[in-house]
Amino acid sequence: MRVIEWREGSLRFLDQTRLPLEEIFVTTDDEYVVADAIKRLAIRGAPLIGIGAAYGFVLALNKVTDASKVPAAIERASILLSSTRPTAVNLFRALERMKAEAAAFMSAPLLEFKLHLLEEALAIHREDEAMCRAIGEHGAALLPNAAVVVTHCNTGRLATGGEGTALAVIAKAWELRTLKHVYMDETRPLMQGARLTAWELKQLGIPSTLMTDSTAAFLMQRGLVNAVVVGADRITLNGDVANKVGTYGLAVLAKHHGIPMIVAAPTSTLDFTLVNGSEIPIEQRNGKEVTHIGETRIAPEGVEVYSPAFDITPGELISAIVTEQGVMQYPFRDPIKRLRPGRSRAL
Ligand code: MRU
Fold this sequence. Notes:
This protein is α/β, with parallel strands linked by helices. It has helices at about 30-40, 45-60, 70-80, 90-105, 110-140, 165-175, 190-205, 215-220, 245-255, 290, 335-340, 340-345; strands at about 5, 10-15, 25-30, 145-150, 180-185, 210, 225-230, 235, 240-245, 260-265, 270, 290-295, 295, 310-315, 320-325, 325-330. The protein has 2 domains: about 5-135, translation initiation factor eif-2b, domain 1 (Four Helix Bundle (Hemerythrin (Met), subunit A)), CATH 1.20.120.420; about 135-340, Rossmann fold, CATH 3.40.50.10470. 5-S-methyl-1-O-phosphono-5-thio-D-ribulose binds next to α2 and β9.
C-alpha cells in the first residue's frame, strides 16, 4: 500500500485519521486539501509531512497559467503549507528545497518549470524511502539479541516515504531474527500507537503488545524490555530531540533502568540552525483531544488542558541517534557537525 502517491497530476493519500477502522484514500489536485490534511494529521509523521508539503507545493504551482503569477503563487503556497504544523523540521526543509528548485527554473517555460517542481517532490519522496532502508540497517545492528523493544507514537510506513524510522529498525531486526517482541505505547491523546503502530506491526507479522503510556516504567522495573527505539521530529546541533510527547519520560526511565535509548531519524530531521532543544517550537494541540474520546466527553466541562504535541529529550539521555549515514553516540555535537548534508540532499 502506498500511503502517499503522485498519480497523473493529482496527489493520492491515505487519510490516517480513519485508521484502523477504515482505509480511505483521498485524491486531490488542491493544495488547500493537502494543507488541511497535514493540519488534522491525515498526513502525519515528520518525513511524510515534508513529502506531503512538497507535493502540495507542486499542486499549488500547477494551477498557475500565467508565468507572471508564479512568484505570488510560490509565496502563497509557502505561507499556506509552512503554517500547518510547527515542530517537524522536515516540512520546512522540503519547502526550502521546492523554493530553491522554483528559483533555479524560474525563467524556464511554464510547463518545464512545473515538471522540474514535480521531479523535485518525487526526489524528496524517493530519497526518504532510501533513507528509511539505511536507517533500518544501521539501527538493527544496535539492538541486543532477543530484543524486546518499547516504541512510542508511529514511525513506520504511515509516517515516512518508506519503511519508517524506528519501525524500520524494528522491522529489520525482526527480519534478522534478533527481535523478540515490541511493546507500543498507545500515545495519548491521538493514539498513534494504538491506532497506527498496532495496525502496522500486525501487518508486518511482528509480535507486539499495546500498553497505556504510563505502563513503561513498570515494564522496565520488571526487567521485561531491553531497548527503547523512537523517531524524531526535530534534532538540534547538540543532539536534543523533539518527538511525540512522552518520549522524554521514556528516556528518563531508560536511563534509570540502564536500557539503551535509541532515536532513529533521517538527516532531513536535523536542524543545523538550532543550538539546543529549547529553541524548537512546540505545537500545542486542541484541549478537546484530551477532554474527549471521539465525540464523548470524559472530563468536566470547562477544565483547563495542557497538551503539547511534542516534548524535548536532552541529548545526554540518548544512547544513539541513527540516521541514514550511520550511528552517532553521545556526545552528539561533533558527529552531528560531521554529517554530510549533501548526500541526502535534504539538508
Ligand atoms: O503528531 P504526529 O503523529 O505527526 O507525530 C509523529 C511523531 O512524533 C513521530 O514519532 C515522528 O514524526 C517520527 S516519524 C518517523
